[in-house]
């Protein structure tokens, strides 16, 4: 093993993953090791039991791919075979980074880089050290990109955000709200990313974790996702896109890794071709956005495979109806626990300081899936009412036991189309009449405004998606959460409340309802990026017909699911379950669409999502 590396891990996806020696202490720190017990995909295990990987292995994989991407970006500087052009681009980047590190605008203490800058006082000696320094920095950013995840990752993220006042210390809440108040559009940033800012800044201030790498450079790139807060230079934003872009190594690793664990074929991506096509560009004609790290047009087949397999992974794995039922049940169980007045719960504050007054590790710094499961299994306190206790116990069968004793309104796209086809004709006409044409709807900024509507079954799915999108932008339920909660989460809770109040029984069977919404553009949004051909960019849709298909699939995909969970499933016969499914489907569609005329009327002044409630 090369002396530059401190450790190697055997990985089922990438073979061997080598940890650079300067990052070894960081890998072994509580910030990263906590991720060993934070699941990558919580509910997906219900149908894919081997899909039980952790955020830790994904962090290592992203670190590994970040180093490879930088190696080829540096080698492919300017995207040209002209050696002088490549050297000029490399020298320009090395100079701009050197100037930034000298200026230290964010006041990051960094003895290592200060020493390097003083020793490498001339450009030539600095340029020799620069490629390895940058590779280590990008490796660190890849390693740390997910440290802000809560227990059970994305599944419980809305609960931790909404109930932050019940979970985190006053100091942490103040820090989070200061970040949110400085963001131009807080709805574009996920809660775990904001938590990651707090943890990464703290990690980079602990001198015992910093061995021969630059925390100033790492923080400059990591924080570049928030230029409105940190005033990041454009080269940092371009390099950040390696990990967080339209097509990036974060997505590449989890598609490969989750496919490997789930046993699907969705990991068939030409990784070598994709990474060998990473290029570093500087454009003099765009002074505000001169830097770009992108992909050569020669990678189009690999990009197609990645985006297609990402779409299929979401459709068949992450948005499998059983995965969604388990994830939603877990969210609701945790919400009920945080609503409970009992003080018996263990600490689940994973953002607190890592050491107490005596220098001993605090248990809360290790809050992970294990702590969350311990809390769930303790159950509610004695003050919970009978209805709440019954709902809690019913949902625990799914959240903890992965039971599938529930009725799903639809399990596939075909069943969804059938449900819409069975809807009353006057309801369909009202729905299609409420949806604006592409021309008038384009002012809302929604991706669904790509064409006028017709009355086909497929267009009905897009029409329903439009109504859902509109309802999530209207705000909704006033709940007990005091933190930030999205319009999607609000609508889920509102629909569950309506269904549980109006239909506590379906076909005479008592039970409880769950609602799962999965909005937002996925692969369709990524299909809108550009590739490099020499020193010019060409839109992906111009070189691949797959782009249009991805956008259309996004527009028409299923975005809403309902689940009716009987309190006593053993007494429900197979025939009764069929009747349950048909009746549950009807109740859910009525609740989902709601008052179509009212939804249309509110288009003129939609409320902003993601506000405080």
Describe the fold and architecture.
- The longest helix is centred in the N-terminal third of the chain and has 22 residues, at 123-144.
- The chain has helices spanning 24-27, 30-33, 55-75, 83-103, 111-119, 123-144, 157-162, 164-167, 170-181, 191-203, 215-222, 227-230, 234-240, 249-262, 271-276, 300-318, 321-339, 369-378, 386-399, 413-421, 425-434, 438-441, 457-472, 487-502, 523-526, 540-543, 546-556, 574-593, 596-601; strands at residues 5-11, 15-20, 278-282, 291-295, 407-408, 505-506, 509-517, 530-533, 536-539, 560-566.
- Helix content is 52%, strand content 8%.
- A hairpin with a 3-residue loop joins strand 1 (5-11) and strand 2 (15-20).
- It is of the alpha+beta class and 613 residues long.
- The termini are far apart.
Pick out its properties.
613 residues; 10 strands; 29 helices; alpha+beta; disordered C terminus; single chain
- Main sheet strand line-up: 5-10-7-6
Q: Count all strands and give the number.
A: 10
Number of helices: 29
Structural class assignment: alpha+beta
Helix content: 40-55%
* Main sheet characteristics: 4 strands, antiparallel
Strand content: 5-15%
Mean pLDDT: 85
Uncertain runs are: 360-364, 437-455, 597-613
Q: Give the N-terminus to C-terminus distance in angstroms.
A: 54 Å
Radius of gyration: 25 Å
Structure, briefly:
This protein is an alpha+beta fold and 613 residues long. Helices cover 52% and strands 8% of the residues. It is built from 29 helices and ten strands.
Topology:
Layout lengths: L4 E7 L3 E6 L3 H4 L2 H4 L21 H21 L7 H21 L7 H9 L3 H22 L12 H6 L1 H4 L2 H12 L9 H13 L11 H8 L4 H4 L3 H7 L8 H14 L8 H6 L1 E5 L8 E5 L4 H19 L2 H19 L29 H10 L7 H14 L7 E2 L4 H9 L3 H10 L3 H4 L15 H16 L14 H16 L2 E2 L2 E9 L5 H4 L3 E4 L2 E4 H4 L2 H11 L3 E7 L7 H20 L2 H6 L12
Antiparallel strand pairs: 1-2, 3-4, 5-10, 6-7, 7-10, 8-9
Helix pairs in contact: 3-6, 3-14, 4-6, 6-11, 14-16, 17-19, 20-23
């Amino acid at each position: 093993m090369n002396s530059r590396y401190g450790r190697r891990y055997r990985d089922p996806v990438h073979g061997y993953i080598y940890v650079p020696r300067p990052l070894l202490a960081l890998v072994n720190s509580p910030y990263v090791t906590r991720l060993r017990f934070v699941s990558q995909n919580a509910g997906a295990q219900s149908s894919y039991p081997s899909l039980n990987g952790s955020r830790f292995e994904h962090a290592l994989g992203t670190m590994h791919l970040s180093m490879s991407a930088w190696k080829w970006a540096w080698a492919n500087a300017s995207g040209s075979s002209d050696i002088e052009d490549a050297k000029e681009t490399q020298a320009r980047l090395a100079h701009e980074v050197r100037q930034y590190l000298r200026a230290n605008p964010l006041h990051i203490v960094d003895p290592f880089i200060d020493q390097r800058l003083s020793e490498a006082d001339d450009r030539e000696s600095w340029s020799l050290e620069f490629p390895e320094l940058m590779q280590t920095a990008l490796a660190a950013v890849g390693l740390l990109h997910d440290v802000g995840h809560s227990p059970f990752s994305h599944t419980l993220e809305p609960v931790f955000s909404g109930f932050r006042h019940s979970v985190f210390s006053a100091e942490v809440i103040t820090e989070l709200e200061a970040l949110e108040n400085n963001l131009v559009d807080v709805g574009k940033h996920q809660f775990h990313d904001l938590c990651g800012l707090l943890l990464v800044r703290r990690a980079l201030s602990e001198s015992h974790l910093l061995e021969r790498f630059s925390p100033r450079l790492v923080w400059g790139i990591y924080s570049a996702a928030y230029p409105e807060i940190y005033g990041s230079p454009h080269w940092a934003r371009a390099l950040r896109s390696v990990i967080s872009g339209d097509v990036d190594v974060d997505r590449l690793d989890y598609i490969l890794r989750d496919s490997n664990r789930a046993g699907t074929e969705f990991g068939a991506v030409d990784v070598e071709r994709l990474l060998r096509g990473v290029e570093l560009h500087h454009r003099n004609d765009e002074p505000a956005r001169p830097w770009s790290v992108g992909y050569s047009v020669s990678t189009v087949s690999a990009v197609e495979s990645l985006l297609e397999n990402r779409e299929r992974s979401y459709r068949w794995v992450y948005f499998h109806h059983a995965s969604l039922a388990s994830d939603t049940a877990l969210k609701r169980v945790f919400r009920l626990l945080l609503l409970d007045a009992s003080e018996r719960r263990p600490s689940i504050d994973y953002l607190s300081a890592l050491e107490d007054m005596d220098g001993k590790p605090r248990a809360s710094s290790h809050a992970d899936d294990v702590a969350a499961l311990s809390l769930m299994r303790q159950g509610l306190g004695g003050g919970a009412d009978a209805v709440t206790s019954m709902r809690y116990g019913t949902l625990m069968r799914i959240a903890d036991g992965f039971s599938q004793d529930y009725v799903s309104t639809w399990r596939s796209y075909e069943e969804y189309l059938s449900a819409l086809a069975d809807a009353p004709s006057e309801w369909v006409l009202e729905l299609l009449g409420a949806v604006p044409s592409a021309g008038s709807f384009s002012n809302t900024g929604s991706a669904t405004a790509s064409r006028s509507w017709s009355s086909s079954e497929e267009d009905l799915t897009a029409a329903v998606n439009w109504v859902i999108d509109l309802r999530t932008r209207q705000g909704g339920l006033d709940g007990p959460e005091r933190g930030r909660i999205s319009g999607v989460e609000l609508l889920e809770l509102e629909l569950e409340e309506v269904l549980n109040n109006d239909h506590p029984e379906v076909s005479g069977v008592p039970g409880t309802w769950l609602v799962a919404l999965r909005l937002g553009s996925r692969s369709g949004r990524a299909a809108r990026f550009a590739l490099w051909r020499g020193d010019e960019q060409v839109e992906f849709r111009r070189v691949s017909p797959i782009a249009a298909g991805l956008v259309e699939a996004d527009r028409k995909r299923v975005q809403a699911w309902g689940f009716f969970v009987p309190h006593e499933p053993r007494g429900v016969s197979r025939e009764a379950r069929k009747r349950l499914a048909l009746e549950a489907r009807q109740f859910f569609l009525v609740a989902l669409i709601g008052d179509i005329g009212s939804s249309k009327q509110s288009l003129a002044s939609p409320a902003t999502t993601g506000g405080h409630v």
